[in-house]
Every structure is written in structure tokens, then in C-alpha cells.
Specification:
single chain; N-(1-d-carboxylethyl)-l-norvaline Dehydrogenase, domain 2
């Protein structure tokens, strides 16, 4: 008998996770989202039902995956009666305890990856970190995770928070730097494509060497001539100038202390 799942949320994580669960043999019973556009879009891909009304969430499902913004999870869940079914959130930063007032059976399923609806992801290669409030629930969520991923690890809320912070540095901040790079290049009519080989080589290096050993550039040795020249060039980009200076000092300080 297929286990039935209801998804509360229809964003990037919910999209990839629900599709992967369906491929693994789970029945996606319903999608909830505050907006009809996102709820309908995901439900159509999964050929299932959807709702935009909290009171119409189908509580007959066997389990519920919550993939919402951390700030709204508690409020949204307060309007649903889960009948102590397994309730699972997918947040890196949110404690397991946020679920305890909503069901006696709680777990966390945190996939460590950047998700965009438009890009396909091989979930087998996505590390998944789990936690649960009982051993039985941990075994159940681990069994589900292992159907999707080759790497499943137990991590409590404190470990998961550090994982999430680490991911913000390694992914979100780095991607913001790409945005800055593209913006600066555009001022001189240079296409962003010219730095893509550099980006790929940098990413490849850290697959094969320690990130600390892979670090290059003027900040490692604090080459004042180059750094001053760059800061002068950034005079009309004060926010980026401050960021460049701060990051350069951080790199130098780190390598100086080694």
C-alpha cells in the first residue's frame, strides 16, 4: 500500500521533494499553497489535488511535509488538526520542537542543496539530514530518505543550524558575488560568460583540495597596490567597495594566522 503525503507549500523545495517522492512510489495526495498559481502548477505536474484554504487540507493523508518560510510555519500549522500523523518540516534552521504542539509524531527532512523549480536535480546525490522526536519516527523518516538519497545522516537541530549557515556562505553568498561580478562587467559591456570558466575551475578545485589551499588572489598576501587600485575603481560602488575591503581583510587575516 502506498503511503500518502500532503505537501504544505509549493515552492522550490516542495516541488523537487514531492516529485522525487512520487517517483519513489509515494502517493502525493494534495498540495497546499497560499497562492493558487503555485499550488495549481505543482498539482498539475503531480496530477493531484490542491487547495489554497488551510481548512481544506486533507488530514486523511499518512504524513505531511511542510516546506514553508520559517516565519510562517507555526501560524499555518496552528489552523490544521493533524490527528498525530507524522509531521515533517524541511528547514535547516528551524528546531524540531516547533512541531511538537501540532502533532505527537514529528520529524525533520533537510536536503542540503540549492533548488530552483526550473532545474532538474538528481536527488540521489543530495545529502539529507534527518531528526525525529522518537526512535520509531526516526526510523520511518530515515527509510523515506534512503529511498530518495544515497547520503542520509542524523543531525540534531544545533548541527543542522550550522549546516544551514555553512550552506548560506558556500551557496547564497557566493551566488550574490556572481551577481556583483555580472553587474560590474556590464558597466564595461563585458559578458558574464567570460568568467564562467573561472567559476567552474574554482568549484572543481574544492572537489579535489581543501578550500583553504585553493585560495588565490591579492587578498591572500594582501597586495596593497592591487587592493588599493581595486578600491579606487569601486569608488562609485560604495556597498561593493566596503564588501571588497571586508572580505579581503578576512582572507588575509585567516591566512596570516595559519
Amino acid at each position: 500500500m502506498k503511503l500518502s503525503v500532503c505537501f504544505i507549500g509549493a515552492g522550490n523545495v516542495a516541488t523537487h521533494l514531492s516529485k522525487s517522492l512520487q517517483k519513489a512510489g509515494f502517493q502525493i495526495q494534495q498540495i497546499y499553497s497560499r497562492t493558487e498559481e503555485s499550488a495549481a502548477a505543482l498539482a498539475n505536474q503531480l496530477r493531484t489535488q490542491y487547495t489554497t484554504e488551510i481548512t481544506k487540507i486533507d488530514t486523511s493523508a499518512d504524513m505531511f511535509f511542510v516546506a514553508l518560510k520559517d516565519s510562517v510555519i507555526d501560524k499555518v500549522l496552528s489552523d490544521i488538526r493533524f490527528k498525530n500523523k507524522l509531521l515533517v518540516h524541511c528547514s535547516g534552521s528551524l528546531s524540531l520542537s516547533v512541531l511538537k504542539n501540532h502533532s505527537k509524531n514529528c520529524a525533520v527532512f533537510y536536503p542540503l542543496q540549492t533548488f530552483s523549480k526550473e532545474r532538474e536535480i538528481d536527488f540521489k546525490k543530495v545529502p539529507v539530514f534527518i531528526e525525529a522526536n522518537t526512535k520509531e519516527n526516526e526510523m520511518q523518516i530515515e527509510g523515506i530518505a534512503r529511498k530518495l538519497s544515497d547520503t542520509v545522516l542524523v543531525a540534531n537541530s544545533e548541527k543542522r543550524k550550522i549546516l544551514h549557515i555553512s550552506a548560506v556562505f558556500a551557496c547564497n553568498f557566493v551566488n550574490h558575488f556572481y551577481t556583483i561580478s555580472a553587474e560590474l562587467l556590464k558597466t564595461k559591456d563585458i559578458p558574464f560568460e567570460v568568467v564562467k570558466p573561472l567559476i567552474l575551475e574554482t568549484a572543481q578545485k574544492v572537489q579535489e583540495m581543501n578550500p583553504e589551499e585553493a585560495q588565490t588572489g591579492p587578498a591572500v598576501r594582501f597586495d596593497e597596490n592591487i587592493i588599493s587600485s581595486h578600491l579606487n575603481e569601486l569608488e562609485h560602488f560604495q556597498n561593493y567597495k566596503e564588501l571588497y575591503n571586508l572580505i579581503s581583510k578576512s582572507i588575509f587575516k585567516h591566512h596570516k594566522n595559519e
